[in-house]
Design brief:
By secondary structure, the chain is mostly helical. The chain has a domain of about 55 residues. It is about 75% helix and about 0% strand. The chain is built from one helix and no strands.
């Protein structure tokens, strides 16, 4: 190897290293943005699922209260409901 080629090789390796670093940096930023989008979508889906669950629970609770009221009304008028309603411990 001739010593007068060292500066040229140093410049070449530096340029190749910088290019590899630039490509890797660009790829890493794209991957990070993609991960951020996935996280945002999952959080949005979780929030929608929680809202849907809460709506379903509220609706079930309303229907349960209405059924208990109708059951009490039937019993008040001496009408035996068919089928008989089994009241749990969470009734008002």
């Amino acid at each position: 190897m001739q010593w007068d080629n060292v500066p040229t090789l140093t410049a070449l390796f530096t340029a190749v290293g910088a290019a590899v670093l630039a490509v890797y940096d660009r790829w890493a930023r794209r991957a990070e943005r993609r991960e951020d989008r996935v996280i945002e979508n999952l959080q949005r889906e979780r929030d929608n699922a929680i809202r849907e669950r809460d709506r379903a629970l509220a609706s079930a609770s309303r229907w349960r209260r209405l059924a208990v009221l109708y059951h009490a009304l039937l019993l008040r008028h001496d009408i035996e409901p068919v089928p008989a309603m089994e009241l749990g411990g969470d009734d008002e």
